[in-house]
Known about the structure:
The chain is mostly helical. The protein folds into 2 domains: 51-76, no CATH class; 85-214, no CATH class. Helix content is 61%, strand content 0%. The protein has 7 helices and no strands. It has helices at residues 55-65, 77-84, 86-120, 122-130, 135-171, 180-206, 210-214. The protein is elongated and about 95 Å long. The N and C termini lie far apart (90 Å). The mean pLDDT is 77.
Amino acid sequence: LHGKLMEIVGVVGNVESRAINEDKIRPYFYVPIGQECWTMMTLLFKTNSDPMKLAEAARGAVWEVNPNQPILRIQTMDQVVADSVSVQRFCMRIMVIMALVALVLAAIGIYGVVAYSVSERTHEIGIRMALGAQTTDVIRMMLKKGLWFTGIGVAIGLALAFFGAKLMTVMVYEMNALDPAAFIVVPLVLLFVSTLACYLPARRAARVDPMTALRYE
Length: 217
């Protein structure tokens, strides 16, 4: 080390010393503090009680050794972990907000497409109802159009999410790339929102008076 011979006295296990979401284990070695002293040090205390209750005792123990030693901050390990991934969590919150906005815009778009289709097919709907079509038949016909596009979108989204989730594991600590909740709940929410967006204009179409619809131009 720096031109000096060092004796290896033991080998320790791997530690994540830089970032908890870092996959690559970097090589490290430990030296006695009397031989290589760093300008900054970190002391770790392990306790079974509230760690912040030891804050004053920790300060006192340090100042007993050196009363002039400044102490920058005292944190729990949970706070240290939270600080280390704060940027990633902020990015994830932004992505969630953008996803919610996209969901709302998609629902509005589906509603607009189905509503436009209802207005264009009013005459057809009137003929169908005059020939004996039931309200449920009309609703089913209009729902099929909107849910068809939703089904295609969900299928493509699941495929992209499968590959995108693996990339997200690099950004978010302890993230399960194949979380069943995400791959089941999210598509169900999308289907529910799209069904609701399709149902409203479909219900309006089912209430069309056949005689009025037959005169529609």
